[in-house]
Design a protein that fits this description.
alpha+beta, Cytochrome Bc1 Complex, Chain A, domain 1, globular
Length: 440
């Protein structure tokens, strides 16, 4: 019955929360800091834990170790094998998930208030006592090998892997997050245990809890999950300036169209000009149908179904990236248009009308991100990780409203580097292969 109640409540959560939600910073009796936002209107509690490190802590010869390890956390823990753990989770309608990025391993859990103790224990045992049973390892190994084989012919995966190898040679960022078929095939229990020890550590965790729970109750949840975890003993990777210096790199893949990933160095999330860069990006390519690139490439010329740009604030080396797909015989024209718009932004900035429209959208859409407890919990750990301050969600729209066209002109001159714009083209583009540096 519990599982049906949670599913129903999640389906009909009212849009009653907003960016003005109250947030408390709490230190538990066990000395662990976390953020809490109480929302008593519906009896659901969400917990989000982010551990710094993620796939960047993979050993050089074992890419995919952290991803494979995370995939096994709910495949048996403590005295429960995979089936018993799944049954226990279903019995209390626990929604527990694990995700790995280049810089983070995240744990997400949503539960009814009345079973928060049982679900908290399921989270604790998963991250503290994973079993790594042989049958579970082989099951996850088969799944991950299938994924990594598919990645070898997926244009988006191929372009991302190639660009990160170009940008961060000999750095952990250059390795595929999911690993490779050979690395996954030889992964051992010892490799997985080492990945667990390196990533799931008490002193690199950011934690938030949102929902129908008191401060004392939330603190007990945090202590129960986190106490007993070790301190870190694996250093994080060094920072690295990206090596993207311009040009086009072609990766051959038969098909009627090409996928393009492009970019150059970006901006740190804690840079005082980040918000200005964020607004600028919305106007250039982050604003969907209202962006300049969409207007020039899709609306005026019909060369793509979609084109976008985005700021990637990686912990050890930020990038400013964009992506587009186009027919093989029009890719060259698309690349020329991107370079031209990059140059125009660098030299001319934006208009007052463009800035006004961007502000209206960005400030109006922000509260809509706070429509569920799980989304709020995710936002709060992101704010913690970026060290933006506990009042950031209250200040964020004011920061956007304060951006001027002069600010954007300044950051555009600083950031936009048409000569360093690097393109990775996966496909068989017409007119490029004789005039470019081939990546493969």
């Amino acid at each position: 019955m519990i599982r049906y109640a949670l599913a129903t409540l999640l389906a009909f959560v009212p849009l009653s929360v907003s960016a003005q939600t109250d947030i408390e910073e709490i230190v538990t009796p066990g000395g662990i800091l976390f953020w809490l936002s109480q929302e008593p209107s519906i009896p659901i509690v969400s917990m989000e834990i982010v551990f710094r490190g993620g796939a960047s802590l993979d050993p050089e010869d074992r890419p995919g170790a952290v991803t494979m390890m995370a995939g096994l956390l709910n495949e048996g823990a403590g005295d429960m094998d995979a089936l018993a753990y799944a049954s226990a989770s279903e019995e209390v309608a626990a929604r527990i998930g694990f995700d790995v990025g280049r810089d983070t391993l995240s744990v997400s859990a949503s539960m009814l208030r009345e079973v928060r103790g049982e679900v908290t224990e399921l989270v604790r045992v998963a991250i503290q006592e994973p079993r790594f049973d042989a049958d579970a390892i082989e099951r996850v190994r088969r799944q991950l090998i299938s994924v990594t084989r598919s990645n070898r012919t997926d244009p988006s995966e191929m372009s991302g892997n190639e660009l990160f190898q170009l940008a961060f040679p000999n750095h952990p960022y250059s390795r595929p997050i999911d690993g490779t078929p050979p690395s996954i095939a030889v992964m051992t229990v010892e490799d997985l245990a080492a990945a667990h020890r390196a990533t799931i550590v008490r002193d690199r965790a950011y934690i938030s809890i949102v929902g129908d729970v008191s401060a004392d109750e939330a603190a007990l949840m945090v202590d129960h999950v986190m106490q007993g975890l070790p301190q870190s003993n694996t250093p994080l990777p060094a920072d690295m300036a990206d090596q993207l210096s311009g040009g086009v790199h072609v990766v051959d893949l038969p098909g009627g169209q090409s996928r393009v990933l492009f970019g150059h160095v970006g901006i740190e999330r804690d840079d005082p000009d980040f918000i200005t860069a964020y607004v600028m990006n919305h106007i250039l390519g982050g604003g969907g149908f209202t962006s300049r690139l969409t207007e020039e490439v899709r609306e005026k010329r019909g060369l793509t179904y979609g084109i976008s740009t985005f700021l990637t604030s990686l912990e050890h080396g930020p990038l400013y990236l964009g992506s587009v797909a186009s027919a093989n015989d029009t890719v060259t024209e698309v690349i020329d248009l991107v370079r031209a718009e990059w140059g125009l932004m660098a030299s001319q900035g934006v208009t007052e009308e463009e800035l006004s429209e961007a502000k209206r959208f960005l400030t109006g859409a922000y509260p809509l991100r706070f429509d569920t407890n799980s989304k709020i919990a995710d936002i709060l750990v992101g704010v913690q990780e970026a060290e933006l301050g506990i009042d950031y969600t209250h200040r964020r729209n004011d920061l956007i409203e304060a951006v001027t066209v002069e600010d954007i002109a300044r950051i555009a001159e600083r950031m936009m580097q048409p000569e360093s714009l690097t393109f990775v083209v996966v496909g068989q583009p017409v007119g490029l292969s004789d005039a470019v540096d081939l990546a493969n």
